[in-house]
Malonyl-coenzyme:anthocyanin 5-O-glucoside-6'''-O-malonyltransferase-like (Salvia divinorum), 453 residues
Amino acid sequence: MTTVIETCRIPPPQGVAVELFLPLSFFDMTWLHSNPMYVLNFYNHPCSEAEFFNTIVPNLKHSLSLTLKHYLPVAGNLLYPLDTDALKPVLRYISGDTVALTVAVSGLDFDELVANHPREADQFYDHLQPPAPLIEQEDYKIAPLISMQATLFPNRGICIGANFHHSLCDWRSIVGFVKAWALINKSGDDEVFVSEIGESLPVFEKPDSEASRRVDGIFWNAMKKIPFKTVESHPRPTNRVRDSFILRQSDIIKLKNMVLSARPNLVRVSTFTVAAAYVWTTLVKSHGSAGDEDEVFVFPADARGRRNALFDPPVPVNYFGNCLGGAVVIVEHRKFVAEDGFVVAAEAIGDVIKAKIYDGDEFLKSPENRLSMMSKPERVFGVLVVYGSPKFEYKEADFGWGAAKKVEMLSLDDEKYGMFLSNSGDGGLVIDMSLPKEMMESFASIFEDGLIV
């Protein structure tokens, strides 16, 4: 259904640094053995194959090269040592490194792919390439960090797909990179990007403190015990469907009022708190009884510019890489099925945010504790993981075709339960889910019914 036309190698322009070495921090090592991150932007832009191949593709190649000048690590590779006792992993760029850009034409129905109803998850993987195989060279296994794909839907639209290794960067950073590429593509050069960013051009030096170096060692000692490999094919069949759900601004106000009516002493009830609690409660109800087991909710929190227990001063906001704290919320399953299950979930999430995120003395305190969360305790039935953030909108990347019609985070398929959050554009939120078909039907029914007055 999708025909690959070419895969080309895009280097940074001449005149950039000859080499760059960046040791991995514990922020990066967290993701060494996780699957790649797959994300797609679908754009409404009717154009012919002639326009696509003669104008759009050459512009994308040129602008990607210019963007790499400012994001040099993206063009590099992850080097994983063969002798893990003697060496540690690094991100390395050397002259000659490139980013793979695949150009393709799709025969799939664009409007079906961007619709807000259940769609088979497998079909989306035609719009990006799986990671390249590992190469062994001297003392290291070498893994590319990112690849891109531009896919034309003739006379209907364009999809820009990104496949990146999470040890390269987190969501805020990849959004910044793709937005930069889009802006440079739209303007034709990098002058507008440089003038808009000014002194906030990305910086790559890893966050460092005496305490963080201790944590780096703890993480490496744990991670090097796991064999390093990359995923060389897409996870098909996924046996899943994807769907999007809207929480309108009026819905969010209603949910906040429900919480405050039941818990008037709560100081702050945020949009994130009620949205996450509502999705979590809906999901728990849709997957059935779990007896006395626990339900777990995991969400990230950007550590840049935030007072914390590990770095003083905090990590700069223009740091490119991984810089995520976060928190874990645990609630007994039986409390969800009670009449006030949603309120209980919202209160639990709010309490953890207040205690672990807003308190700078607690945020990033003992980050090595997250290692224990990588293995699920026996009493846990389900774990819901948050992807994305309405604060860093991937869909806003405008290549000259306007904002994206739809963003699809394919990495949701890797989780038993995951949710991707983005703005709806009118004060509400979009929640993307990937679930088995029958469970998605149950989730959708409970989600809609719960919003009816």
